[in-house]
Amino acid sequence: MDEKWAELEPTIEEYNKVHNDLKANQKKRSELEAKMKPLNDQMKAAVDKVGVMANRSYRAGPASGLNSILQTSSPTALTDQLIYLDRLAEGERQDIEAVTAARSEMDKQKAALDKVVSEQEKRDKELADKKTQVEKELDELEKLQEEAYGSVANVPSSGSTSPSDGNCSSSGASGVAATVVATACAQLGKPYVFGAAGPGSFDCSGLVAFSYAAAGISLPHSTVSQWNMGTSIPADQAQKGDVVFFNSSLSHDGIYLGNGMMVHAPQPGMSVEVLRIDVMPVVGFRRYG
């Protein structure tokens, strides 16, 4: 059963990462759509302005302006009118360039938007497929647990301590670390739920993200993404509130409590608990804030 979970947990964290990437793409798409509106308005205004000038020129005819100039008797007036016509032509050129620039910018934005939408659609399908498969495997795992222990509530956790154990305390920590540990310890006994990030249930990276959010630090709901943030800390310098990561696939993490202990969300059928970190292969520690 433990082997089955070790195989399944990386898939769960991959799901979390895909889900986060999907939300990021959706946000980017919304931002691009918001930019498109003023760009469309700008383009319409430029087109309308050029259209008005073109319409005036069409109604008056090119000969009309030329006759007015030729009939001017004063050299000064003639010069003034020529300058006016030159400025008018320059204005029309600028309007056309403005339209072209607006169109070019809109096309760039549209191309970027299309790319994001395409990526989002691809990830959406991957997400749906992974979710279906993970849920199926989770159901199978819980059935195995029930067969072995009679009820998932009776599943033991090797190396864990009771939810009331004094090991889960923010004593000795300060600032961000104190808030993170206190928040994580307050979740003891809450059930593990795949993809959950509180407040009533958690998976491993969800508990980490939830605890750090209480300290004003935003972390993604993914062990791999969390590993790629913050500062790497040597094991002999790890302190309360640091995040400890496990397995070469970075499939699990928890909040370090010091003295070789952590608080974490373990697996389906179990609850947030305090556990020794030496029951799994530690790959490193990270510190945030």
TrEMBL record:
- Tell me the SUPFAM superfamilies matching this sequence: Cysteine proteinases
InterPro entries per the UniProt record, alphabetical: NLP_P60_dom, Papain-like_cys_pep_sf, PG_Endopeptidase_C40
Where, if anywhere, are coiled coils annotated?
15-42, 117-151
This protein's record includes keyword Amino-acid biosynthesis: no
Q: Cross-referenced Gene3D superfamilies, in alphabetical order? A: 6.10.250.3150, endopeptidase domain like (from Nostoc punctiforme) (3.90.1720.10)
UniProt KW keywords: Coiled coil, Hydrolase, Protease, Thiol protease
**Would the keyword DNA damage turn up in this protein's UniProt record?**
no
- What's an example GO BP annotation here? proteolysis
Superkingdom of this protein's organism: Bacteria
The NlpC/P60 domain extends over: 174-289
Q: Which GO terms describe its molecular function?
A: cysteine-type peptidase activity
Q: Which family does it belong to?
A: Belongs to the peptidase C40 family.
Please identify the protein, giving its name as recorded: Cell wall-associated NlpC family hydrolase
Organism from which the protein derives: Catenuloplanes atrovinosus
